Amino acid sequence: MAKLCENKERLDQYRAKAKELVSKMTLEEKVSQMLNEAPAIPRLGIAEYNWWNEALHGVARAGVATMFPQAIGMAAAFDEDMMEVVGDAIATEGRAKFNMQKKYGDADIYKGLTFWAPNINIFRDPRWGRGHETYGEDPYLTTRLGVRFVDGLQGKDEKYLKSAACAKHFAVHSGPEEIRHSFDAVASKKDMYETYLPAFKALVKDAHVEAVMGAYNRTNGKPCCGNEDLLQDLLRDTWGFDGHVVSDCWAIKDFHEGHKVTDTPIDSVSMAVNHGCDVNCGNLFIHLIEAVEEGKVKEETIDQAVERLMMARIKLGTIGEVTDDPYAGISYNVVDSKEMKALNLEVAEKSIVLLKNDSQALPLDITKLKTVGVIGPNANSRAALQGNYVGTASRYITALEGIQDYVGDQVRVLYSQGCHLYQDRVEPLAHINDRLAEVKAVCDESDVVIACLGLDADLEGEEGDAGNAYASGDKPNLNLPGLQQQILEAAYQSGKPVILLLLAGSALDVSWADEHVAAIVQCWYPGALGGKAIARVLFGDANPQGKLPVTFYRGLDGLPEFTDYSMKGRTYRYMEQKALYPFGFGLSYTSYSYDFVQLSQSVITEQGITIRATVKNTGARAGICTTQVYVKALQADTPNAQLKAFGKVTLAAGESKEVTFNLPLEDFALCNEEGKAIVQEGDFQIYIGDSQPDARSIELTGQQPLSVTVSSEKEICL
Fold it and tell me: CA–CA separation, 280 vs 302, rounded Å?
């Protein structure tokens, strides 16, 4: 975590400086600093600053930067250390770009050091369009990856933040996009404290995240950006958050226009600021001057908010003459450097998940191939590399280009777009399915067919994004859009082996493909160099190690209504139906076994439980095993086994290593209806393996995780 946050004396000095600055401002100047586009106050040494910047998977929307795989893809790596390295790399490029822009007087939007990332909402429903911005459906995985990403973004200096991270969208937010400006997400205290809140709490208390962003919707009746239960009672009073709160963009006007909880803009800004919101992404806070004049907001409340904002800018070294900021000298040369490209490729390779591999169809043997057919609307699509909230790469390598570059002149590559991503023809004046003949020709001439299908951010994304084909941003179903299923079936009917590459940010129902094609690879939105990573996996230079951070369902049957925020029946933790591909699942080109489980003790105590096991690479090639530990409370009416620890183990063929995990007391706790965490009296099953212990994972892997039973001799309230 950032050393600065541990340095009380330094923080006290910063608070005093912030307080002094604010004391010298007029009311108009204070309010001006609470807008995302804050003007300069030259007499106080305060430069103009725009609070709005994005860095979900790279510095976004401000020119060239390294574009890593989308967040959901990075989550599939199940790698905490990698997330911190990525966060640090993004902060390095962010600082380099900020320093360059400052030199040339550019303080525009997307040019600051306050990054509105990560998105740590829970991807509770596969229809949600913004789910690919998250780290998946599990609160523990989300927590660990979010904490380490923030650690990387904010740095470890004792005086300054490298950049300022932001936990969003606080606190219960995951669609539907179409009605987010008026929707009330109703969640029980049990679901709040077991599922929706843990990651936010950890980012505040463990990572000392500098900012928190409120959501558009209401939570339990109150707008999130003006919700005293969330922003004041929980965030500040209970968790001790001392950073700043920012509204989502134009969310304050939703108070009176969408939620109808206030009557006027003045009432809306009063509610927001009185309940803890400090920065307005938008311009509605200009009405705070009237709110103070009318007695609806005390000027002392404005002072407190602006002091928090000045604190953030002081921590970032952006106020006054600063001579000891270690990040001020980061050169623009680091942006898009050779080292950044190498890291990007490594992350993309780690993110890829092998879902099916019948008869070892993969990796492909280049010496046995004369012609490879590549088909599908995502084969040569840059959009399918990106996801949303993106920067500009200096080079993009699509799946087609990656395969072409890899095989060179050794193998002929034939290509057909196959079909439009979601429409019924490629050319508007042509007949329906106007590329089908070409698909059949490519397949007939090829030794193996690689079908690149899925989605892009035009189909799953944020409400209101330009060009979104589904308008709301959410998916209406889990099917392959348009004619994609038809061209996949045409490829299969050719009799040639078919490898399905899915480039998408969420789960799709590929039940037909699971029954028919030779191999399926989930590539997510793999970043600017994604095509190179895909080719290295296809031809065996990289061994797949990714695991699913979300459940792949067999359609929508059995899922609750999208608007139902109860966790019952949702995600691997509470679902009752059999998954197509379960959370935590992913194959490798090698195999692993587990043995010799040892426990520190069999009775759960205040010290928790330490579990040890030996993992062995039983295959013929080196690999990186993703070990997962799950806990299942064996009492009645308890959730399915839940992820409580994970780690990466690098193993040569035939090599064994011991792995150790410490499970603290809270890993055995569940929340009651009041949201209180309790370790129940009775038995608990601990599982350790490279998948979760559900029947479908065991069916797919042919292996059952090792398990041991521990017990709690009494009920323990945490």
Answer: 13
Q: Rounded to whole angstroms, how far apart are CA atoms 151 and 2?
A: 6
Q: Is 109 exposed, middle or buried (0-12, 13-18, 19+ CB in 10 A)?
A: middle
Run of H or E including 492? helix 484-493
- Residues 133 and 75 sit within 8 Å (Cβ to Cβ): no
**At 2, is the pLDDT very low, low, confident or very high (cuts 50, 70, 90)?**
low
At the fourth CATH level, which superfamily is domain 3-324? Glycoside hydrolase, family 3, N-terminal domain (3.20.20.300)
**Amino acid of residue 595:** D
- Overall average pLDDT of the 192-219 stretch: 98
Q: How far apart are CA 533 and CA 541, in angstroms?
A: 9
β-strands 166-170, 211-214 pairing: parallel
Collapsed DSSP state (helix, strand, coil) of residue 533:
helix
Q: Give percent above pLDDT 70 in the chain.
A: 99
The CATH homologous superfamily to which domain 592-717 belongs is: Immunoglobulins (2.60.40.10)
Q: Looking at the annotation, which residues are catalytic?
A: 248, 460
- Segment 61-93, tens digit of pLDDT: 999 999 999 999 999 999 999 999 999 999 999
Task: Supply the angle between the helices 484-493 and 436-445 in degrees, to the nearest 10.
Answer: 30
- pLDDT tens digits, 495-551: 999 999 999 999 999 999 999 999 999 999 999 999 999 999 999 999 999 999 999
Check whether 1 has a pLDDT greater than 60: no
The b-or-e profile of 130-161 (16+ CB within 10 A means b, else e) is bbbbbbbbbbbbbbbbbbbbbbbbbbebebbb
Q: What is the dihedral of CA 658, 663, 668, 673, to 10 degrees?
A: -130
Q: What angle do CA 156, 160, 164 make, to 5 degrees?
A: 85
pTM here is 0.98
Q: Decide: helix, strand or coil at residue 332.
A: helix
Read off the tokens for 648.
């990466």
Superfamily of domain 349-550: Glycoside hydrolase family 3 C-terminal domain (3.40.50.1700)
Query: Contact, 533 vs 526, CB < 8 A?
Result: yes
User: What separation, in Å, do the N-terminal and C-terminal C-alpha atoms of the chain show?
Assistant: 25
Sorting pLDDT into bands at 50, 70 and 90, what band is 466? Answer: low
Q: How far is CA 297 from the centre of its chain?
A: 36
